[in-house]
Amino acid sequence: MNSDFSLTLLKWFRENGRDLPWRQTHDPYAIWLSEIILQQTQVKQGWEYWERFMRRWPTVDELAAATEDEVLREWQGLGYYSRARNLHFAARQIVALGHFPQTLEEIRQLKGVGDYTAAAIGSIAFGLPAAVVDGNVYRVLARHFGIGTPINTTEGKKTFQALAQSLLPTEKNSHPSPLTSHLSSLYNQAIMDFGALQCTPQSPDCSVCPLMESCEAFRKGRVGELPVKLKTLKVRERRLIYIYVRCGGTTAIHRRVAGDIWQGLWEPWLVEPTDDVPAGTVLLSQNVKHVLTHRILYADFYLLETGERPELPPDYIWIPESDLDTYALPRLIEWAVHALFLKHF
Asked: E strands within the chain?
């Protein structure tokens, strides 16, 4: 029975759920911030960033008052920087609204918030009866109910969303217990934690799973096959050549434009792979591999020390090298600059 499935997860969560700081509050700002950070980020890494943001900007008004550069700098190292830009934009949306939106429709209007994030915020912060469907939920439902419909198809998304919503417990279909307060919030957190801790992507320990007896995938030996996801992603390779220019204690950087990787972040002089590097440059490192979701980057890094500033495109600015740390850099560039300073200072 579906109600048994939900109650089993709630009981499991009470005994095994993760003790996370954003679960100790109903502050929608803190909850929203955690959900944005945890998009495409593991909890262990995201936790540190959540605490960093909460210390620096403890309210949405303070986050909205920050500059985009400041937000990107704090986000540095998390990747998927569009999340940081959307976070900042949404903070200003909330301030303009005058309060944190409290309905699913309003929450979805925030920049960077889709159905999953809206359901998570709505249920956890406001107790709205909205089921979350993320990678963990797909996996748990596909395995337990033996669903082979690909999760990244229109049909799959509709199927799993409807099933998830039907499993969401309410006061009417749950036996009275201390668990029945904030059921939507508890259940959503339970199934996400269950997928993260118990029904893991690789080698789950089915022998200690409380849902083992009713799990279709376990009974039919299909645990490793589910969920099904169509392979549609084509990973492309790209070569980047950077020249770090050092001139009288200054260096040149520019901000990356929209429509490409690392939008809004800063980088040293980037030259085309077909161009010759200027005379006097020194090769620091070559073929440094950096993997993104859609691309594999290979970067060469050069150092040019000169007493005269070279002619660069107009979007480059000259800054004191000592100020470089105040600019948001991609992780690849941050690593290269750090290595450069260790070698040449």
From this structure: 236-246, 250-255, 266-267, 269-271, 282-291, 295-305, 317-320
Residues recorded for the chain: 345
Is the pTM higher than 0.70? yes
Catalytic (active site) residue 308:
no
DSSP 247: B
Tokens 């376990």: give the residue: 218
328, 73 contact by CB (below 8 A): yes
Q: Which of 35, 51, 68, 171 is catalytic?
A: 35
Tokens of 136: 């963990």
CA–CA gap between residue 252 and residue 317 (Å, rounded) = 5
Asked if 247 contacts 308 with a C-beta cutoff of 8 angstroms, the reply is: yes
Residue in 68, 222, 253 with CA at minimum distance from that of residue 143: 222
What is the spatial distance between Cα 153 and Cα 142, in angstroms, rounded to a whole number?
Answer: 14
C-alpha to C-alpha distance for 297 and 255, rounded to whole angstroms: 19
User: What does the pLDDT profile of the chain (345 residues) look like in tens digits?
Assistant: 578 999 999 999 999 999 999 999 989 999 999 999 999 899 999 999 999 999 999 999 999 999 999 999 999 999 899 999 999 999 999 999 999 999 999 999 999 999 999 999 999 999 999 999 999 999 999 999 999 999 999 999 999 999 999 999 875 544 434 344 478 899 999 999 999 999 999 999 999 999 999 999 999 999 999 999 998 768 899 999 999 999 999 999 999 998 899 999 999 999 998 888 998 999 999 999 999 888 999 999 999 999 999 999 999 999 999 999 999 999 999 999 888 876 654
